[in-house]
Structure formats: C-alpha cells, structure tokens
Write a structure and sequence with these properties.
With about 280 residues, the chain is mainly α. The protein contains ten helices and five strands; from the N terminus they run αββααβββααααααα. The strands form two sheets. A three-stranded mixed beta sheet has the order 3-5-4. The chain has a two-stranded antiparallel ribbon with strand order 1-2. Helix 4 crosses helix 9, helix 6 crosses helix 7 and helix 8 packs parallel to helix 10 (about 250-270). This is M48 family metallopeptidase.
Length: about 280
C-alpha cells in the first residue's frame, strides 16, 4: 500500500550530466542478495545509512503535506499494534519506530526505512479489529524488512530515472549551484521513489513476510483473509484503485487462506508464550 504518488520535479540540464557521471560508481556498489522468500534481489545503490535518511526525509515530507490526526485513542491503538509487531523483529530493528496517524479516508498505510510508519484513519473502515489492523501494518513492515525500498532505488538507478535522488547524493561535489538544486529537487525525488507503488512481486512477498510476523506477534493469521475481504467490500466488489499493482483479489485471498493454516502452529505458540496483544 502507498500514499498518493507526488508529482515529479523537473531537473536542470547540469543535474542529469552530473548524475550520469556517477551512475557507474553507484551501480558498482550494488550486490545481489536473497529475499525472505528466496528471491534474488539486486540492492546496494545507496548505503543503509543513506537509505534510512531518505526514509526519514520522505516521512517528514508526508507529515508536512498531510493532516495529522488529533485522535489520541486511535493513535494509541495504532502505536500499540506497531509496538507488538516490531518487538518480534531482529535486534537492531525492534525499537525506535515512529508512528503517524493521518486524517485521510483512504484505507491505506506505509512503512519506510529508518523506522517510520504512517497509517490513514480511513483504515478503520476495513480493519475491524486489532488482528486486521496488524495485517495491514505487518504487511507494510514486510516491505521494509524485505529490502523493497533498497531494491526499488537500485532499479531506479539502473534505469537512470532517479535523477533527483542521485543528485542529492553528489550535489555537494559540484559547488553551491549543485547544492542549491539538490535542496530544491532532491526532496521531491526522494519522496517519489520511496512512495511509488510496489510491484506485484513485492506485494506478494510483503504478504508472506507480514502474515508470518503477525502470527509471531500473537495475532490470528486467518484475520488477514477477513481484512482483504473487507477491502473488496469497500471497493464495491473491486479493489480500491491504489491496489491495482497488487495481486488479484481472488489469488491473494486464496494464498492468505493457505498460509494462515500453515501459520496456525506459530500463532498458537506465540499465544502460549504470552504474546496476547490487547490493543483494541
């Protein structure tokens, strides 16, 4: 899931030339890795530190452009679910996640590198209980821990389409003019790359990772099926427009059902271990 895509900013001529000069260096630093589902990924066009800073910048821009909810109860509810999920992540990833609840009727959410999660209050129309809200949030966290943002940026670099993003990395090397242009165009480019729709492969993978994460946190993985059925109902029998890059609803629900049965022991073990979230 993802927020509305921002309009791209145009770049001056020198900017594209500067980017062309560093493409080879950036791509030379790329590497192949294996995703949580065993898929080969090409990542590493930027460092993890840079990736996290870009996530923080995109999150700050989303908060500046959106309306933050003043509903303290709903914010605590979302925070509780986020905390219960992130506690199951590996050391170094489990703490420090920042949460924002936006006033937006679209039943949507997103997560970014750097530990940032945004949730639209429209999600409560389809997430009827804490397990269904956990489905949404765990799916978005799945994009982060499966390195989908890293993969997307690396792909953008290879296609030479992330000009503003790349310029932000090297602008300081080209004098004050470059630095000024980086400040003007870099932010829009970073947000654009980070908040573009995921492709279907990534969406399916986030389903797999997220459904396992919610089961490990003590949420019923079968509730993921109900959540996506509510998504369909919200769209009048068709998924909302922003789900166009996701797997077909029938396929998605069938896969969620199949995996939920397989994750039932994980869920029972989590409950037996005392992981019984009581968020709402």
């Amino acid at each position: 899931m993802h927020p509305a895509r921002p309009q791209p900013a145009s770049c001056p001529a020198w900017y594209a030339l500067a980017v062309g000069g560093v493409l080879t260096l950036l791509l030379a630093g790329c590497a192949t890795t294996t995703s949580p589902t065993g898929r080969t990924q090409v990542v590493g066009a930027v460092s993890q530190e840079q990736l996290q800073q870009m996530g923080i910048q995109a999150f700050d821009q989303a908060k500046q452009q959106g309306r933050i909810s003043g509903n303290a109860a709903q914010t605590r509810y979302v925070r509780c679910v986020v905390d219960s999920l992130t506690r199951q992540l590996p050391a170094g990833q489990a703490s420090g996640w920042d949460v924002a609840l936006f006033i937006d009727p679209s039943p949507n959410a997103f997560a970014l590198p750097g530990g940032k999660i945004g949730v639209n209050d429209g999600i409560f129309k389809v997430a009827k209980n804490q397990d269904q809200l956990a489905t949404v949030i765990a799916h978005e966290i799945g994009h982060v821990i499966a390195h989908h943002h890293d993969e997307r940026i690396t792909r953008q670099v290879g296609a030479q389409t992330g000009l503003g993003l790349l310029g932000a990395l090297v602008g300081s090397q080209y004098g004050q003019g470059a630095a000024s242009a980086t400040q003007q165009f870099g932010g829009a480019a970073v947000q654009g790359v980070f908040l573009l729709p995921n492709n279907r492969t990534q969406e399916s993978e986030a389903d797999v990772v997220g459904q396992r994460l919610m089961a490990e946190a003590g949420y019923d993985p079968h509730q993921a099926v109900d959540l996506w059925q509510h998504m369909m109902e919200e769209g009048g029998g068709q998924p909302p427009e922003w789900l166009s890059t996701h797997p077909s609803p029938g396929t998605r629900i069938s896969e969620l059902e199949r995996r939920a049965d397989g994750l039932a022991p994980t869920y029972r073990q989590a409950q037996a271990a005392g992981r019984t979230p009581k968020c709402g």
